[in-house]
Amino acid sequence: MQLIDGKETAGQIKAEIAAEVSQIKAQGGKIPHLAAVLVGHDGGSETYVSHKVKACAECGFKSTLIRFEDDVTEEELLKKIHELNNDDDIDGFIVQLPLPKHISEQKIIEAIDYRKDVDGFHPINVGKMSIGLPCFVSATPAGIMELLKRYHIDTKGKHCVVLGRSNIVGKPVAMLMMQKSDSGGNATVTVCHSRSKNLKEMCLQADIIIAALGQPEFLKGDMVKPGVVVIDVGTTRVPSDKTKSGFKLTGDVNFEEVAPKCSYITPVPGGVGPMTIVSLMKNTLSASKKTFKN
Ligand code: GUN
């Protein structure tokens, strides 16, 4: 069993990005600038956004954090998005999800100029991604594809089972895994979800399992075949008296049971998480360079 070290891989990619940004700066080019909008004080969202801001510094980017309280109105948020869309110094921005219930996430996502949508959540980017056109691909699926590539894990013709059908991970990663492509993809993909009846049978047939259900330790040892590749996307904050923060990040895979049967597996933390952040940095650099001519 080989551990897929997302932390180390993300570190390498950040160094590659930082080197490119140094060159851009030396040539008098524009410094990439990411803005993040954070509503409220949810512990998970605070942590994710602070990691994103820190990663910007490590890559040599500018970053701006814009905070609103929980009671911000949809109108106020839309006004800020309009400002960011029209701010020439901001190359890309994200609105951290989830948002309070009185705000329509879909309305907010669709208000973002798709050319600055470095999260890749806008329907234009989702549509382009699904038909294989250059675009901002959402960060977690992009990070998973990059990990598979950097570990030379062959996906062509393999049976990939995706657990979960969220717009952020399950659906887009299924699209990317099935995509006809010279780098990655070309897999036979099955998507299982909370209503799937024969989920265990499907998992037992899988060469690659991408677990993105948000159910701690859902995937058990008796659900996988020997030699399987397991990508664990779960990041549930489970209360723990063993850590300073009072919780521990728990994946969707029972690591102790599943890992001994795997050829490759990602740990939680230190697997997909750091790659998600670094994919956002790559998208921001692309936005700054206007890579995708729209
Ligand atoms: N909430 C959970 N994951 C994400 C993400 O990738 N981007 C944003 N904006 N919010 C999230």
Q: Would you write up a description of this structure?
A:
The chain is globular. By secondary structure, it is an alpha/beta fold. The chain is built from ten helices and eleven strands. It has helices at 6-26, 43-59, 74-85, 105-111, 123-130, 139-150, 170-178, 199-205, 255-258, 272-288; strands at 2-3, 33-39, 62-68, 92-95, 159-163, 188-192, 208-211, 228-232, 236-239, 247-250, 262-265. The strands form three sheets. It has a six-stranded parallel beta sheet, sandwiched between helices. The longest helix has 21 residues, at 6-26. Strand 5, helix 7 (170-178) and strand 6 (188-192) form a beta-alpha-beta unit. Helix 1 packs parallel to helix 10 (272-288), helix 2 (43-59) packs across helix 10 (272-288) and helix 6 (139-150) packs across helix 10 (272-288). Guanine (GUN) is lined by residues 94-97, 119, 139, 168.
Which structural traits does this protein have?
single chain; 294 residues; alpha/beta; six-stranded parallel β-sheet; three-stranded parallel β-sheet; 10 helices; 39% helix; binds guanine
